[in-house]
Amino acid sequence: MRVLLIGSGGREHALALGLAADPSVDFLAAAPGNPGIAQVAELHEVKATDPAAVAALAVELAADLAVVGPEAPLVAGVADAVRAKGIACFGPSAAAAQLEGSKAFAKDVMAAAGVPTARSYACTGADEVRRALDDLGAPYVVKNDGLAAGKGVVVTDDRDAAERHAADCGRVVIEEYLSGPEVSLFVVTDGTAAVPLMPAQDFKRLADGDQGPNTGGMGAYAPLDWAPDDLVPRVLAETVEPTLAEMRRRGTPFAGLLYVGLALTPDGPKVIEFNARFGDPETQVVLALLETPLGGLLNAAATGTLAGHPPLRWRDGAAITVVVASRNYPGTPRTGDVIEGAEVPGVIHAGTARRDDGALITAGGRVLSVTATGPDLVAAREAAYALVNGVRLDGAQYRTDIALSAVEGRITL
Ligand code: AMP
After folding, report:
1. Atom of ligand 1 nearest to the CA of 204
2. Among candidate residues 223, 114, 80, 203, the one with its CA nearest the CA of residue 150
3. Which residues line ligand 1 (CB under 6 A)?
4. pTM above 0.90, yes or no
5. From CA 398, how far away is CA 341, in angstroms rounded?
């Protein structure tokens, strides 16, 4: 199978490693890719959000399967354009990707499907915003309606800050605060059949102890030994199946990766958000534990044959990833800093680039996603932080407490 992978971040490097390890994948290209992905795939330049350009590249490479990593190309219609050329594509149509592209759309689908989620209001003006904030009370949760790369959400007790964020965004969804530990569940689907992957937990805040601003994600781990035994079947029955049915009913079936972000509240799991693609950095840990060949699984979803796919196999043990970010992230990250010690197995590249002289340099906010497995979380943590200590980057920021509360048994349901 000839595969073209679209994207350039840590998630795509993890996907590339999984695809390259699949014996059924005999050719792997990535566009635009990054220096880490270049170790396992042939890189091509493309504007990932240009549907015609991506489709033309898939044709030129005689790809059997395209895998679209990030959300922006999906919302732009890249999967539709690739499929229009008769090439299978893992990733939803632009219409179905609205589950991530618009928070208000996602809320509408959830309401129609009866999915457990936070009460919410879609608001456009200051009056609507004030009424919603009055009704729902603090802590205030204000979400930019459109794509914001995981950074469009403000959760705050500060009423002025909530109103300011709403005014900055224009159209927002304001919702009830959900308390309880968060879980990310990835579901591979062809629109009808749904195959859940292993639940993982990510860390959105920049600093230890869940302090500092929200980021795209600073680390993740799996499995979640503390999660209820019935979590996955319950979320499939209460959330995933009804959502897929509602999307089919609307004539826009969702095929690809449905990311369900959940809060495990005292009333049960409730949806915080849907995404239309693999989450970053949870993908790094989930794929590190997946034994089933990745290309075959994604191809089954892309070709509508997922019901016939064999059950997934998982490796024993645990996986952790620790994101190393550049100076000033998540503000305006400093780029061009030299990175040393990062070209070793387990170090997944996200915002890196190759300088003309061959040096590896920072090219974005989240620079590396340092990933390790071990027989348990304690061992995986030690291995991941040993790798982090081997990385030399001026101004590097990373959390030292990824998976620590799980290791110490401090997560309460
Ligand atoms: P989102 O981009 O919707 O995933 O939101 C980013 C982060 O904001 C989530 O991972 C949560 O930590 C937090 N968040 C979003 N919605 C809620 C909510 N309704 N209640 C509590 N926290 C939330």
Report:
1. 10
2. 203
3. 118, 141, 143, 150, 153, 155, 175, 177-178, 182, 204, 214, 261, 272-273
4. yes
5. 16
Query: Is residue 230 over pLDDT 80?
Result: yes
Measured between alpha carbons, how far is 57 from 63 in angstroms, rounded to an integer?
Answer: 9
DSSP track, 95-158: TTTHHHH-HHHHHHHHHHHT--B--EEEE-SHHHHHHHHHHH-SSEEEEESS--TT--EEEES-
* pLDDT reading at 110 higher than 80: yes
Which of the four pLDDT bands, split at 50, 70 and 90, describes residue 152?
confident
Residue nearest to atom 19 of ligand 1 (CA): 177
Distance (Å) from CA 287 to ligand 1 centroid: 24
Query: What distance in Å separates the CA atoms of residue 286 and residue 278, rounded to the nearest whole number?
Result: 10
Question: Which tens digits make up the pLDDT trace of 68-108?
Answer: 999 999 999 999 999 999 999 999 999 999 999 999 999 99
Distance between alpha carbon 246 and the CA centroid of its chain, in Å? 23
Question: CB under 8 Å to 267, separation ≥6 — which residues?
Answer: 116
Specify the pLDDT at position 282: 98
Q: Whose CA is nearest to atom 10 of ligand 1?
A: 204
Kindly list the distances between the CA atom of residue 62 and the CA atoms of 4, 25, 45, 59, 365, in Å, as whole numbers in the listed order. 9, 13, 16, 5, 34
For 378, the 3-state DSSP assignment is helix
